[in-house]
Amino acid sequence: MDKLHDYLLSNAKDDLLPWTVQVDAAKQFGMTCRMIEEAVLQMGLLPVRYQRNRQTISTNQQLRLFRSKVAVIGCGGLGGYIIEELARLGIGQIVIVDPDVFVEHNLNRQILSSISSLGRSKVEVAEERITKINPVVKVTPVMNALTEKNGKKLLQGMNVAVDALDSIQARLELSEVCKDLGIPLVHGGVAGWYGQVATQFPEDDILKKIYARCKDGNGIESDYGNLSFTPGVVASIESAEVCKILLDQGSYLRHSMLSINLLDMEIVKVQLS
Fold first, then answer.
1. Beta-strand (E) ranges in 48-146?
2. Which CATH superfamily is domain 68-271 in?
3. Percent of the chain with pLDDT over 70
């Protein structure tokens, strides 16, 4: 281990370590790049890919993100952006759950969709995308729908779960699974020009309050449709909530919901307690 440390230190530029050095170290010492990255962060060095994080996120916090496990439920309009942002942020393990394949009407808003991905599993395409962006992220693709029956197995050991679903019933089932496992849940929804974000901790019932009067299983997105930009806005706020929870920083959208109106550029925080 001392030889590895010496090698990394001798090849660091100040306290930054290029990706090429990580790859070479993995080959020389018979380790995975993921193992090398953890060693780098433990030494107080920083992979160059996170250089622009450092004024906001310390190296110790970057290590904490690397050791975190996040589940993203849904890999469409919201989920695609969330997965990409979490991978670029440096979340170490991401579980992606979605039973669907890409179809043509996904192309207007789902960042992971493309002509070449039509007919392909969304979770497989997401895994490929993450590998290209940040190869040290451990990805678990699950081409299945999350239910109360399989939810506990799929989410066991997660630090945070993220709702990127489009069904009220599925969201409520996810909420119950998270409550049973004691996992914080970051909720997001989009419809046309509008979006919402809220964070539920295990002892809360935020999702039930939000959807108490809703009977339509598909939510209002079935009436308003979805535009290209709304998912990106909502997904970014969800990703920020995940980061804050993992680092125990800032104020969460707990007992409240951020209501987003991009048509009139109005963002309102609504109390739900």
1. 69-73, 93-97, 138-142
2. NAD(P)-binding Rossmann-like Domain (3.40.50.720)
3. 97
